[in-house]
Amino acid sequence: MKSISNYVNHRETLSWLSNYFQEIYGVQITIDLSTNKQTYEIKYKSNIFARVSILDKEITINDAEIIAYESNEPNLPHVNRLYCFKSSNEELASKEDDKVLNIHQDCIAFMICMLSRLEEQECDQLDVHERYISNDSWSERFNFTSIPVVDHWADYIMHALSSKINEKIEPIKKYGVHISHDVDVPFHLSGKNKVKRYFRSVLGSLYRREFHRAEQLLKSVVNKYDVFDTFDFLMNISEKVNEKSTFNFIPDNTSDRWDADYRLEDTKIRDLMKKIISRGHKIGLHCSYNCYQNDYQINLERDLLQSSCQKYGYKENVISSRMHYLRWESWGTAKKLSNSGIALDTTLGFADKIGFRSGTARPYCPLDLISKKTIKLKILPLHIMDVTLWGYMKLKKPSDMMIKSKSIIDRVKEVNGTLNILWHNSDLVEKWKKELYQEIIHYAKK
Ligand SMILES: [Zn+2]
User: Fold this and answer.
1) Fewest CB atoms less than 10 Å from the CB: which of 30, 155, 215, 285?
2) C-beta pairs of 26-30 under 8 Å, 24+ apart in sequence
3) 182 CA distance to ligand 1 middle (Å)
4) pTM above 0.90, yes or no
């Protein structure tokens, strides 16, 4: 396993990070290795405003230890602690007389590792869906999944520049919300698996002692309504807060077990898409189960969805995606999506934990640390997924789910990030889930 410095200390890699700052703040800085190779020099208009000590020992992803350093920066209240590799120097930073900030911890390597997801590239412990899970991540091991650690470093560094040049520097993009819904099972009572699905849901609910859910499922057959047809409810809520929802459809089937049982040309799907389009909401690509490593299939599914959308009156190009089951291969999937004409992907979150998988709430173009090339795909990290709260995190009370969600939303607001929420149309059967969703959206838009 290569050391972290081996990956990071390259001109192209440092230049990628400089561009990252430019994209976020609209300010061109440069990050270079100093001549003695002991520090990075961060410059604005050729003047150094910060120096960063380079990791004082050769460490790999596996032996890295990460701790929090107190920031004590009164003018940056949301950044009270900064996470970085543990080093022999216990101090975070000190200032020289000429206002150059000396950062004693290698935040450059830390930011690059977090954003590029180097730890995922080197991990072979995957779950049943071949996904990287939070347990193995630095953020869970060192307890910072609920903190946008990269954004905090970026704000801290730009604050140093701000005080040096006496100019306020803020992110160009202000806080926003991206609301999306993966259409895995559009209707409970249609599709070729409807009978199996119905009995499995009822029995499953009874087994899990979810009596309210079982009651709703039974009532739906008697009263002839579909408990998964919550599209109007979802659109109403988005419209009330002046937002557009993105509905992600699965255009093809690459796994009988895990994929959807609908086709884009089904009458009910056609009518549903027409309704979404006529109300001005957006259509996104939900790549089927076995797409994430397959260029050909991604292209095919994007084309299928684009041509259906056009037929149903969609005037825009399909440019956003999310992978079904959040399957993601670090760098490979992003490159394949970018080659298919996708501009924005919204997959990158842990299935099993809400929070910040890559330490950020802001969209960014990732870096392939091997070829050292920027991937031309904007990643909008996923922060909150419905089923994560009760399914994976096993929270029991809606009030606890709300507290956890609020804490993530607050962190996104503080850094002017874009909050990315995924709520499935099929996860609103129980009244409390509808109420929780409404409460989360209202809080996010407050
Ligand atoms: Zn899905």
Assistant:
1) 215
2) 26/172, 27/158, 27/161, 27/169, 29/161
3) 5
4) yes
Between the CA of 336 and the centroid of ligand 1 the distance, in Å, is: 18
Quote the pLDDT of residue 223: 76
Asked if 389 and 353 touch (Cβ cutoff 8 Å), the reply is no
Task: Tell me the C-alpha distance between 300 and 96, whole Å.
Answer: 57
Local structure of 179: helix, strand or coil: strand
pLDDT in tens, 233-278: 999 999 999 999 999 999 999 998 898 889 999 999 999 999 999 9
Q: Which amino acid, 170? A: E
Q: What is the rounded distance in angstroms from the CA atom of residue 378 to the CA atom of residue 131?
A: 20
- Taking the centre of ligand 1 as the mean of its atom positions, its distance from the CA of residue 287, in whole angstroms, is 8
Q: How confident is the model at residue 53 (pLDDT cuts 50, 70, 90)?
A: very high
Predicted confidence (pLDDT) at residue 188 exceeds the cutoff of 80: yes
Which pair of tokens denotes residue 116? 């590029």
Reference 5, options 80, 71, 85; nearest CA is: 85
Ligand 1: centre distance to CA 323 (Å) = 7
Instruction: Convert 289-306 to b/e letters by CB count within 10 Å (16 or more is b).
Output: bbbbebeebbbbbbebbb
Q: What is the pLDDT of residue 78?
A: 95
Arch. (CATH architecture) of 176-187+228-445? Alpha-Beta Barrel (3.20)
Maximum C-alpha span of the chain: 78
Residues of the chain with CATH 3.20.20.370: 176-187+228-445
Tell me the CA–centroid distance for residue 289 and ligand 1, in Å. 8
Q: Are 147 and 83 in contact (CB under 8 A)?
A: yes
State the Cα–Cα distance between residues 358 and 373, nearest whole angstrom. 18
Task: State the burial class of residue 128 (Cβ atoms within 10 Å of its Cβ: 0-12, 13-18, 19+).
Answer: exposed
Cβ contact 301:251 at 8 Å: yes
For residue range 63-108, list pLDDT tens digits in order. Answer: 999 999 999 888 899 999 999 999 989 999 998 777 799 999 999 9
Query: 32-41: per-residue pLDDT in tens?
Result: 999 988 899 9
Residues 131 and 139 sit within 8 Å (Cβ to Cβ): no
Tokens of residue 429, six digits: 């059967």
